[in-house]
Amino acid sequence: MYILSSDFDGTLFVNGEISEKDRNAINKFRAQGNLFIINTGRSLPDIFHQFDLQNLEADYYIGSNGSMVADKNRKTIYKSEFSTELSKEIYGFFKNKLSEEVFFIAIDSENSTGVEFYDKDFVFFKDRYTNIEEAFTNNIITMFSQARDKENTSKIIEKLNIEFGNRAIFNNTAPYIDITESLNNKATGLNVVKQIESENLIDIYTIGDELNDISMLTEFNGFTMSHANDYMKAQINQSIESVGELINTILR
Questions:
Q1: How far is Cα 163 from Cα 55, in angstroms, rounded to an integer?
Q2: Which positions ≥6 away from 177 have C-beta within 8 Å?
Q3: What angle do CA 78, 143, 196 make, to 5 degrees?
Q4: Tell me: the pLDDT tens digits for 184-230?
Q5: Where on the phi/psi map is residue 136: left (φ > 0), alpha (ψ -120 to 50), or beta?
Q6: What is the DSSP string of 207-252?
Q7: Which CATH number fits domain 2-80+185-251: 3.10.50.40, 3.20.20.20, 3.60.9.10, 3.40.50.1000?
Q8: How far apart are CA 230 and CA 102, in angstroms?
Q9: Which of 88, 89, 116, 137 has its CA 20 to 30 A from that of 177?
Q10: Is the pLDDT at 125 greater than 80, yes or no?
């Protein structure tokens, strides 16, 4: 049995769609007894919604950059909560130091998203959200923001790293900034699945295109998308055109 762990945005979901080639390859891969995992920075409720829209299924769903894992029935089997104290510190830094450089700061809990906007004209990409104060009353999973200038994302993250050190991970998926507890990354979530599915496991393949994918691409048999930036390609020496092409390579 093989496992394939795929990033979503920019890897499986490209230019607003999942190609028919990738869709057919995933169905073929699973039909032969292998496991397909979606491994994303998005929250679990968000990725469930996206898969419903696409009429697609996965064997496991890893959300919030490894902070939550759900099985194929969408039952949560792993959860790492974000410290409320730390999340309030990070929120305060965005509000007091970065509000002119980002559109918003958002907090994801298991079932909702709380947002504070710094641009009154900004159109948020989620239909349902609440205010930031209410978010702090829930079990926090992750935080995220969006730079006003995509090219400034790295500089914002530098400021965050100087302020918070290794207390949190600030993932650069420009223009977005995904924030998780320091022990969580995409490899963390994938290792949860590996422990469960170790029997009859031959190999684990991974594919992605952004910096938050590096943990799983380096720890397992990783491929970057061919459109990934030069830094990603320098870290991972295998690249490929699509999820479907990687599946066909695995099944040869």
A1: 42
A2: 102, 144, 145, 146, 147, 153, 156, 157, 160, 170, 171
A3: 15
A4: 899 999 999 999 999 999 999 999 999 999 999 999 999 999 999 99
A5: alpha
A6: EE-SGGGHHHHHHTEEEEETTS-HHHHHH---EES-HHHHHHHHH-
A7: 3.40.50.1000
A8: 26
A9: 137
A10: no
* pTM attached to this predicted model: 0.90
Crossing angle of helices 243-251 and 20-31, rounded to 10°: 30
Instruction: Indicate the residue type of 233.
Output: K
Q: Which residues contact 197 (CB under 8 A, 6 or more apart)?
A: 1, 3, 35
Given a contact cutoff of 8 angstroms between Cβ atoms, the answer to whether 213 and 206 are in contact is: yes
Return the ∠ at Cα 16 (arms to 41 and 155), rounded to 5°.
45
- CA nearest to 115, candidates 125, 107, 123: 107
Domain 84-181: which CATH class? alpha beta
